[in-house]
Write a structure and sequence with these properties.
The protein has 644 residues and is of the alpha+beta class. Helices cover 17% and strands 33% of the residues.
Length: 644
């Protein structure tokens, strides 16, 4: 039996349902703030209220998917939000007039995706937005008038630009491009946005460097960038530092911040977005470095209040009022208003106040040795009072060029509450730990990247955390791939696996990426390996070809409209396993994409995952909440699949 103390079981809806309130943002004039909350129908919508008053009003009316991304227009009279259809990621930008509550689709083009969105205080009635109207593979920039809705072309993409940079005059003057021949990145700059202005390349960064420009400084003469390159000022570094580069020739004007152990994490700009005030680094906990002395007292005042990882999430145009978030590892995310004049913070709300009634657990950073002599950073969450080894879930992050962090993690709280230890780990290819660690994973899907996960399990067994007979692997996207690879390549290591939208066949994955990933294609090929042309590598690294080795129970969940990992990725491996007479549970959500946006679907999925984990690893299941999963789109695919 388990030695952990049974704490009260937290209903899934309290962890994975919609938050009661979330994502507050100040109006530019600082008089109101908006936030996301449930409509009467239980769908996330935007609400607006006056600061210091209790007059909240729902101003958007989404009735199905929910709104997850919104922004104040700089005119104080409109709210902008993005919405797609059923998870297809073809985002449209909508605006809502707060007076009339009239909602308007500003980018009403079928099959077109709105990408980058830029706003500017000095141009409050206009937005800049990237649209792939002319060519589905690339985003040209357009100016949209918020009053008339007129959409006018601004800057044409020559075919290789992945990001645009806007200066303080609201002109597109910078472009980040990728070279298809070798995967290198370019930074191009022009002196103004007139038709005559010539683009010139001022930085060439090879594929194995980290180079991520942020934007222009206030005068427009410099570009802030996270970079591991030398830029003529010295040697290249392993970790990405924050530098200011000359917009004339790309030479380094100054280094603003660096940490030898990890890359720059967050760059915090002033309200206008052209002065860097602070930088964060996050090796195993966030560390703030103040750049502008004017905010030092503010950051210190916030640090006294925040229990966990905090962030300045919103500012008024005059920069006198802020909202900051606080994401403790063992409590609900919370949001505060902050006055720079008085240096006082006031709690706005908790995102999930019902969690205050439950025993939540803390998350510990751990250093895990790999079998080839490296060290990786992981995060371990254990059940209340856990002393002896018990069931454990290895929760693998997606990306894979992303990372796990310390702080609020509802999946970790769920598992610990049910009696499972939860381990997350920044295996090679994870971002944040320098270019060497990032690129050690190149061409290593199913190989050393997977070995890192095996090493993490062996470490947890050796440390007395995990019972070797009761370890599960669980993840979405790349984490779903790692689940399939874990069950196929190390068939005895895991008791079971849960794969959410994971690719099973690397060749078909890369052949079917969205059209607008075209400029990134070479980077994908260099990082994953040339699986489209190298048959041996594709067969070695694709779990599909090793499905016959799977011995342990597998649950697969897939969104029907996923544009990144198409439904065919799940169909292929399910068909291959069933052809071998191997059982697999396969759930399709018909109105979802790369993950589950609707709470009824999320809660249906977590209910199934919980029952599955408890059946194969032990732990404890909470009573189901049938009213919370009403209207879900789950289809259990247990018959033959129509596989092309």
């Amino acid at each position: 039996g388990n030695t952990f103390t049974m704490s009260k079981l937290i209903p899934l809806s309290k962890l994975f349902g919609n938050p009661s309130k979330s994502d507050p943002k100040l109006s530019p004039d600082g008089k109101r703030f908006a936030y996301l909350a449930n409509s009467e129908g239980g769908v996330l919508n935007v609400f607006v209220q006056s600061v210091g008053e209790d007059n909240a009003k729902q101003i958007s009316n989404d009735t199905h998917r929910g709104i997850r991304m919104y922004e104040w227009a700089k005119n104080n009279t409109h709210i902008l939000y993005k919405q797609d259809t059923g998870g297809d990621e073809n985002w449209h930008v909508w605006s809502v007039d707060l007076e009339t509550q009239l909602a308007r689709d500003l980018t009403p083009f079928q099959g077109v995706r709105a990408d980058a969105l830029f706003l500017d205080h000095k141009h409050p009635q206009t937005i800049l937005v990237g649209l792939n109207i002319r060519d589905r593979k690339v985003f040209d920039m357009h100016r949209v008038d918020l009053v008339t809705g007129a959409v006018a072309p601004d800057t044409v993409n020559p075919g290789d630009v992945t990001r645009w940079l806007v200066d303080s005059e609201f002109r597109i003057r910078g472009a980040v491009a990728t070279v298809q021949a070798d995967g290198s990145k370019l930074l191009r700059v022009r002196d103004d946005d007139s038709a005559a202005a010539e683009w010139r390349t001022i930085v060439v960064s090879s594929h194995d460097e980290i180079f991520d420009p942020h934007g222009f400084d206030l005068g427009g003469h410099g570009v802030y960038a996270e970079s591991s390159c030398g830029h003529g000022a010295g040697d290249a570094t392993d970790t990405a530092r924050l530098v200011l580069l000359s917009a004339r020739d790309g030479a380094e004007m100054k280094e603003i911040a660096r940490d030898p152990r990890c890359d720059v994490d967050r760059v915090v700009f002033d309200a206008e977005g052209h002065v860097v005030e602070a930088v964060t680094f996050d090796y195993d906990r966030p560390r703030w470095v103040v750049v502008e002395e004017g905010v030092r007292e503010d950051i210190e005042a916030i640090q006294k209040v925040a229990a966990g990882a905090f962030d300045i999430v919103s500012r008024s145009a005059d920069d006198r009022s802020w909202i900051f978030s606080d994401f403790p590892d063992n409590g609900s995310p919370r949001f505060y208003s902050y006055s720079r004049a008085t240096k006082q913070a006031a709690l706005l709300f908790l995102a999930r106040p019902e969690l205050e009634a439950y025993a939540l657990v803390s998350m510990a950073a751990v250093a895990i040795p790999t079998s080839d002599g490296e060290t990786m950073v992981g995060f371990l969450t254990r059940p209340v009072g856990a002393a002896a080894a018990g069931p454990m879930v290895l929760l693998v992050h997606g990306g894979p060029w992303a990372r796990d962090k310390w702080g609020w993690n509802p999946q970790a709280q769920w598992l610990a509450n049910r009696g499972f230890a939860c381990l997350t780990v920044n295996f090679r290819s994870s971002t944040g730990y320098g270019k060497r660690w990032l690129h050690l994973g190149d061409g290593q899907w199913g190989a050393t990247m997977q070995q890192d996960l095996t090493d993490a399990v062996q470490w947890a067994i050796k440390e007395g955390v995990a019972d070797p007979a009761r370890v599960a692997i669980f993840g979405g996207s790349y984490g779903g791939y790692a689940t399939l690879a874990g069950l196929a390549y190390t068939p005895e290591l895991f008791a079971c696996g849960v794969d959410i939208v994971g690719p099973s066949h690397l060749r078909t994955l890369l052949e079917s990426v969205p059209a607008y990933w075209a400029p990134m294609k070479k980077m994908l090929t260099l990082r994953v390996g040339d699986v489209e042309n190298d048959d041996a590598l594709n067969r070695k690294a694709s779990p599909l070809y090793h499905a016959d080795k799977i011995r342990r129970p597998l649950l697969i969940a897939q969104g029907a409209n996923d544009p990144r990992v198409k439904k065919a990725e799940s169909d292929q491996i399910v068909t291959a396993m069933r052809a071998q007479g191997i059982k697999v549970d396969y759930i399709l959500y018909t109105d979802e994409g790369h993950g589950f946006a609707r709470p009824a679907n999320r809660l249906d999925f977590y209910g199934r995952a919980e029952a599955f984990l408890v059946a194969h690893c032990g732990g404890e299941a909470c009573a189901p909440e049938p009213d919370q999963i009403k209207g879900n789109s789950a289809v259990v695919l247990d018959g033959a699949l129509d596989v092309a």
